[in-house]
Amino acid sequence: MVIAIALCVVGLSQATQSSAPVATAVAAVTHMYHDFAAEAVIESEEVSIQDLFGRPKATLARYLDDALVTLVLADRACSRRTQEVCNLDFSPIWDSQDPIGTTAKISAGKDRTRVLVELRMPDRKATHRLTYRMMMTAAGWRVHDIEYDSHESLVTMLQRKPAFH
């Protein structure tokens, strides 16, 4: 029984992590949340779930454009080099350090390159609004930036010098 469940989980993981292009920016963002929903629904001390922004470059490139991948990898290298948090201290797609219980409502923005995501936090009182700025690349729709309703955009954060420098 355990083996069957494990095989189903592995199969589901492989199926959801495909690199097939999607037709619209909304579908691309929906696909990303689908692939990384475990961050918000699995709470376990035995299982560590790596968020999108901690994944290898090839995984980042399935969801983010080249410029954003470069910024994320530079921030990661800064953190490794300094042994401190540089600019990214939260999960950008959840706008939180702890997304457990968060739900996402995804809708089209004012044009085809904008996708709106309303995150409802577990207490059901707080909501965060994110606007994904999407870019059509040769590989399909990719995230170019994420604008937040409560602080500066992801690209702006990643472009600044870390506070401890």
SSE layout and pairing:
Elements: H1 2-16, H2 25-36, H3 38-41, H4 57-60, H5 66-82, E1 103-108, E2 114-120, E3 127-137, E4 140-148, H6 154-159
Antiparallel strand pairs: 1-2, 2-3, 3-4
Characterization of this structure:
The longest helix is centred in the middle third of the chain and has 17 residues, at 66-82. Helices cover 35% and strands 20% of the residues. The chain is globular, with a radius of gyration of 16 Å. The model is unreliable at 1-16 (pLDDT under 50). The protein has one domain (2-159): Nuclear Transport Factor 2, Chain: A. The chain has 165 residues and is an alpha+beta fold. It is built from six helices and four strands. It has a four-stranded antiparallel beta sheet.
Individual helix count: 6
How much is the average pLDDT? Answer: 86
State the low-pLDDT regions, or none: 1-16
How many discrete structural domains? 1
Overall CATH architecture: Roll
Radius of gyration based on Cα positions:
16 Å
Structural class: alpha+beta
Main beta sheet, described?
4 strands, antiparallel
Helix fraction? 25-40%
Order of helices and strands: HHHHHEEEEH
CATH fold-level name:
Nuclear Transport Factor 2, Chain: A
